[in-house]
Amino acid sequence: MNKQRLSALFIKESLQIIRDPSALIIAFVLPLMLLFLMGYAISLDSKHIPVGIVIEKNSAHTSSLIKAFQSSESFDVQIAKDRRAFVKQLQEGKLRAMIVVPATFDKDILKGEPKIQIITDGSEPSIANFVIKYSFALWQNWLEYEKLSTKANIDIQTRYWFNAPLLSSYFLLPGSIAITLTLIGTLLTALVVAREWERGTMEAIMSTPITILELLLGKLLPYFVLGLFSLLICVLITLFWFEIPFRGSYLLLFLTSSVYLFSALSIGLLISTLAKNQFVAAQMALIIGFLPAMILSGFIFQISSMPYWLQFLTHIIPARYFINILQTLFLAGDIYEIIIPNTLWMLGIGLFLFGIIFIITKKKLSS
Q: What are the tens digits of pLDDT across the range 60-108?
C-alpha cells in the first residue's frame, strides 16, 4: 500500500464532501431532524387516553376513584351515570375505553370484593392493552390508598432496573443513533460513489496505478470520519438535550460505533458498485440499508414476536447488533457478555461485505 496515493485520494474525497452541499445536509442536517423526530414524535408511552367512567351510584368511594383517574396523566376522563351515554363515542373512536363502576360498588367493598368493569376499543390492540394495564395499576394503587386491598398482609414494592421512569425514549433515542449512522453509511456513500460512476471520474481513478485496497480505503475513510462527527453530535444531543443517561464507557461506544460504521459503509459502497446510478443507488440504500434497520433490527418492533424465518433474516442486519450495544451502554453499562458477541457479528458482516466489494472491483479492473 502506497501511503502517498492513499492520502491523496483521502484529501480528494474530503474536498469533494466539503464542496458538496447535499453530502453535508445528509451528514449533519438529516440526522438531526431524524433524532428530534425520534425524541418528540415517536413515543411508545400513551398519555391522555380518552376514557369514559360510568358511575351508576354516587358515593364517597366513587368520588375518590374518579379523582384518582382524573389525576393520572394517562387518561382524559369523562363522567356519566349511564353506559349508553358512551356507547356511540366508543363506536366512533372518540373514546378508547369505558370503565363501569356498578351500583353495588359500596356493598361489594363491605364484602371485601370491590370490582369494576373495563370495556376497551379493540380496533387498536396496543392502546387497549395500555388502557387495561394503566387502569389495573391505578386500581391497585387506589385500593391500597383507601386501605381496601384484600391482600393487606402483602407489601408489594415494584422496582424497575435500567429504566426507572419507564420512558420509551430511554431506549428509542439510543437506537436512533444507529439509524442515523445507517443513513450516513449507506445512503451517503452509495449516492456519492454512484455519482462518480455516472460522471466517468471513477474510471479515471481506476485507470491510475492505485491499487484496489487503496481505492476502497480512500473511499471509505472520509465518510468514516464524517460518520464519527455525526455520532458525536447525536450523542451530545441525546445526553444533554434529551437527558438520557449513559452508564457505559465512551471508549467502548467509540470502538463499537467504528465497527458499525465500517459495516454500514461497506453496504453503501457495495450498493454503489452494483448500481452505478444515483437514483437506483438511493432506492437500494433505502430498501437494503435504512428500512431493515428501522423495521427488522428490534428498534421499534420486538424480534421475538416476528415469524421464525424473519427472525433468522435479522441476523444479517448489522443494526440489530449495534442497537443492542447502544441500549446496553446507555441504560445498563459495560456488559461485555452482550457487547463483545454483537461487535464480532458486526465486524464479521463488515469484513464479508468488504471482501465482496474487493472481488467485484478487482474483476472489473481486470476486464
A: 999 999 999 999 888 999 999 998 889 888 888 889 899 999 999 989 8
- Single out the residue of 59, 98, 60, 58 nearest to residue 78, CA to CA: 98
Nearest to 182 by CA among 277, 94, 296, 84: 296
Count Cβ atoms within 10 A of the Cβ of residue 172 and give its class: 0-12 exposed, 13-18 middle, 19 or more buried: buried
Instruction: Residue 93: name the closest of 128, 63, 62 by CA.
Output: 128
Grid coordinates 387502569 are at which residue? Answer: 135
Asked if 318 and 264 touch (Cβ cutoff 8 Å), the reply is yes
Which residue from 212, 203, 199, 63 is spatially nearest to 142, judged by alpha carbons?
Answer: 63
- What is the pTM assigned to this prediction? 0.78
Cell for 229? 462527527
Q: What distance in Å separates the CA atoms of residue 69 and residue 103, rounded to the nearest whole number?
A: 18
